[in-house]
Amino acid sequence: MQMNGLELSKAYYKEYGEPMLTEQFPELLGFLAVGLCGAGSECFGFDDDASRDHDFEPGFCIFLPGEDVVDRRAAFLLERAYAKLPKEFGGASRSLMQPVGGARRGVLRIGEFFAEKVGSPDGVLTVGQWLALPGQALAEATNGEIWTDNYGLITRIRENLRVYPEDIRKKKLAGHLLLAAQAGQYNYRRCLAHGEEAAAQLAVFEFVRNAIAAVFLLNNRYIPYYKWSFRALRALPRLALSAELFEYLICTGNGEDTAEEKYDVIEGLCADLIDELIEQDLTKANCGDLEKHAYLVNDGVADGEIRNLHILAAV
Description:
Layout: H1 5-24, E1 33-36, E2 61-64, H2 72-83, E3 88-89, E4 92-93, E5 106-109, H3 110-118, H4 127-132, H5 135-142, E6 145-149, H6 153-160, H7 166-193, H8 197-218, H9 229-233, H10 242-251, H11 256-279, H12 290-299, H13 304-308
Parallel strand pairs: 2-5
Antiparallel strand pairs: 1-2, 1-6, 3-4
Helix pairs in contact: 3-5, 7-8, 7-11, 7-12, 8-10, 8-11, 10-11
């Protein structure tokens, strides 16, 4: 069986990277972290044969703390040693050029990595940053695997970023629930009543996009880049079965033969969301109006300043 990207990179590190570091840089081992995380489907374990057409290679990341701990010369020597590692491994070739968007593998400064991903070199975020950051940025900061971390810095930062603070989670959840309710339970039928079938499908898209975001929040997981959202959704412990219904909604038309069935599916998905909200003690209302539950979730935000922000402030 062909190795996926994470497996390939770890095997490559064990075969070539670990001996290189042990033999050539023993004095730096206590300050290094090695693993694979960041951008790319392989960092999520989502890669397949189609993923190998770009940015797929047997590489890994060597993470360094700041220059006060590991100076520029040491970093340069590490970069040079990494560049000399074999270019072929496991049927894949290392790229001679950096991918668009900058280096994803090789020697990286921890502070620069997190500054690029979440806007903070130490991973400490303000309330405003937590509210504004898209889930995919946080997902890329915390995905993949770290295989060795003797210094411990990147592990501590990743752990602090692992999940949303509870008030942030509730604020984001409230906003996505409100948008899902307005698009699905209200605007979908109204668009059809106006004879606006294309607008009705836009309402479906808005419902699905926001309902999926709510499902990730109910699982306390970050939603990845949109093209991997369904793949990640199917693997969630809660409400994973909704993926098939979301797919049905966005892949079908809105003619008379399907519109009523689609509305029933939307209502069923809203009911599932409400059941999960009640299960997690995020709402207590006994009604099927998802919008009402959205405001109740917002009411449950403990921090008054966050609670009093517009309900859509985090979406």
